[in-house]
Amino acid sequence: MRSYSWRGLLATSLGLFAAGTNAQTGAISDLGSLLAGQKNLTTFYALIQKYPEILLQLPSYQGVTVLAPNNDAFNKIPYSSLNDAFKNNDKDTITNVLEYHILQGTRLAKSLVPGTPTFIPTLLTSPEWSNVTGGQRVENVKQAGDVVVFVSGQGSRSTLTQADLAFTGGVVQVIDSLLIPPSNLKTTTTAFNLTSFQGALYAANRLPLDSTTQNATFFAPWNEAFQALGPAISSMTSDQIAQVMDYHLVPQVIYSTNLTNGTQYLTAQGENLTVRHSGNNVFINSAQLLQADILIANGVIHVIDNVLNPQSPSAQPNPTIASQAPVFASASSVNNLPFTSDIPCTTSCPVTSHTGTSSVGAKTQTSTSVSTSKSKGLGAAVARETGYHAAGLMVALGGAVMLL
Ligand SMILES: *[C@@H]1O[C@H](CO)[C@@H](O)[C@H](O)[C@H]1NC(C)=O
Ligand SMILES: *[C@@H]1O[C@H](CO)[C@@H](O)[C@H](O)[C@H]1NC(C)=O
Ligand SMILES: *[C@@H]1O[C@H](CO)[C@@H](O)[C@H](O)[C@H]1NC(C)=O
Ligand SMILES: *[C@@H]1O[C@H](CO)[C@@H](O)[C@H](O)[C@H]1NC(C)=O
Ligand SMILES: *[C@@H]1O[C@H](CO)[C@@H](O)[C@H](O)[C@H]1NC(C)=O
Ligand SMILES: *[C@@H]1O[C@H](CO)[C@@H](O)[C@H](O)[C@H]1NC(C)=O
Ligand SMILES: *[C@@H]1O[C@H](CO)[C@@H](O)[C@H](O)[C@H]1NC(C)=O
Fold first, then answer.
1. Closest CA to 309 of 335, 295, 330
2. Number of H helices, E strands in the chain
3. Whether 322 contacts 238, CB under 8 Å
4. Mutation probe of ligand 1 site: the residue of 41, 44, 161 with most atoms within 8 A of C-beta
5. Which of 87, 150, 175, 336 is the most exposed place for a label (fewest CB within 10 A)?
6. Do domains 6-182+383-403 and 185-342 have the same CATH topology?
7. Structural domain boundaries of the chain?
C-alpha cells in the first residue's frame, strides 16, 4: 500500500528545491529546503537529487526519520571509489542503500533511553537485500555521555552529529558515516572469525540455505568452543552435526532486548533454548553470551562461548567460574579449527578442468564464488589492517551489492 500523499509531499519537497528556508518565519521546512540549507549535507543532498527514486518509493507512514550522512562520511572514501562503485552498480543498488538510511516513524534522539538499544525497522525491504520481515533493522543506542550511535551491518557504527532536524514529513538525523546494509550469514561469519561455526553449517548442509531463511537468529559459538570439543563434534555424521547446528537456530528474529531472564525459544531442531541472567552475564543454556546483535541480511547473530547440545537442553551455567565446561561428554580439545576444510574454496582455488557440464550448476557456482571472493577480499583484508569499522565502510561504498 502506497500513500500518494507521501509521494506527492516528498516529490514536491525535492522537486521544487526551494532554496529559501523558513528561518524568518520559523515554520518547519520541507525536506528539500532543509537539506539545501545544510552545509554539511551537500553530498547527501546531491545524491538524493541524482536518485529521487528513493523518495518516490516511500510508502505510507506516520513519519520517517532520514539518517543523513554528512560530508565527512562521504569524504572517508576517496570520491573516485564511491563514484566507481556507484557507476558499476545499478540505480537499484543505490536506492536500496538509501532506503536503509530511512527509518520507519519519527524517531527523536531526545526520546532515546540511555543504554537500552532499539532495533528500528527501515525502508530496506527488497528480498535481494533483506529477509527480515517488516524491513531490515538499524540498532540505535544512546551511550554514556549522550553519544547516540546507529549500528548497522558488520558491526559498523555511525555516530549522530546533529539531532532532530524537523521537516514537514518527519525528522533528519545527521550521522558521521554511512550505514552498511547487513551482509549475509557467510560473509558476516567470515568477517567475525566464526570460522568453525561457518564450516559446521557447511558440514551439516545448512549453508547456503540458512543464509536465505526468513527471520533467523543464530547463536554462533566462537572458534574456541569448537576447539574445546574436537572429535566430539567433528567426527559426527553430517545428520548429527545438522541436529546440533539446528539447535543454534531460532526461526524468528530475537534481538538482545528479547533475551530476557527465563525466556525459552524453540529452535529449528525442535528443543527449546533457555535464556538465563546471572549478575550482568547472559547465558543461553550454559553458554555465555559474548557479543550480541550482529545484524545479518536475514536476522541476527549472537556469539556465545560454548557449543549448545540438543541432548542437554537443561544445561545450566555455573556463574562462579569464568569459562563454562563443554556439554558434550567426550569433549577433547584440539589446536586446529574444526570444520575449516568444509568451507568451499572461494579464493585461489585449484582450477578444475571439468567445466560446462551443467549450465545451472556452473552458473550458480560462478556467481557464488565471485560474490564471496570479492566480499572476502574487501572485508577480511581491510579488517586485518584497520579493523571492522573501516572494512564496513569500504564494503558499503565499494561492494554493497557484492556482499549479498
Ligand atoms: C559541520 O561539520 C563540522 C565538521 O565536521 C562541524 O564542526 C560543524 O559543527 C558541523 N555543522 C553543524 C551545523 O553541525
Ligand atoms: C532472501 O531469500 C531469497 C530466497 O528466499 C533469496 O533469493 C535472497 O537472496 C535472500 N536475500 C538475501 C539478502 O540473502
Ligand atoms: C517473519 O516474522 C514475522 C514477524 O516479525 C512473521 O509475521 C512472518 O510470518 C515471519 N516469516 C517467516 C517466513 O517466518
Ligand atoms: C580467529 O580465531 C582463531 C582461533 O580462535 C585465532 O587463532 C585467530 O587469531 C582469530 N583471528 C582473528 C583475526 O581474530
Ligand atoms: C520482544 O519483546 C517485545 C517487548 O517486550 C515484545 O513485544 C515482543 O513480542 C518480543 N518478541 C519476541 C520475538 O519475543
Ligand atoms: C518450549 O518452551 C515453551 C515455553 O516455555 C513451552 O510451552 C514448550 O512446551 C517447550 N517446548 C519443548 C519442546 O520443550
Ligand atoms: C533470573 O531468574 C532466576 C530464576 O527466577 C533468578 O534466580 C535470578 O536471580 C534471575 N537473574 C537476574 C539477574 O535477575
1. 330
2. 14, 14
3. no
4. 161
5. 87
6. yes
7. 6-182+383-403, 185-342
Helix (H, G, I), strand (E, B) or coil at 166: strand
Nearest to 343 by CA among 226, 233, 203, 188: 203
Q: Which atom of ligand 3 is nearest to the CA of 215?
A: 1
Cβ atoms of 339 and 226 within 8 Å: the answer is: yes
> How far does the centroid of ligand 7 lie from the alpha carbon of residue 143, in Å?
26
Fold type of domain 185-342: FAS1 domain (2.30.180)
Q: What is the pLDDT of residues 84-129, one digit of tens each?
A: 555 665 677 778 888 999 999 999 988 888 888 999 999 999 999 9
> What sections of 17-156 are H helices per DSSP?
31-36, 42-50, 53-56, 71-75, 79-88, 91-99
**DSSP code string of 306-372:** S---TT-TT----TTSSSPPPSSTT----SS-TTGGGSPP-SSPPPPS--SS-HHHHHHHHHHHHHH
Site residues for ligand 1, CB cut-off 6 Å: 40, 72, 162
Residue 263 near ligand 6, beta carbon < 6 Å? no
Q: pLDDT of 234-281, one tens digit each? A: 999 999 999 999 999 999 999 999 999 999 999 999 999 999 999 999
Q: What is Dmax (Cα atoms) for the chain?
A: 76
DSSP state of 111: G
To 10 degrees, what angle do helices 388-403 and 359-386 make? 160
Closest CA to 307 of 285, 274, 276: 285
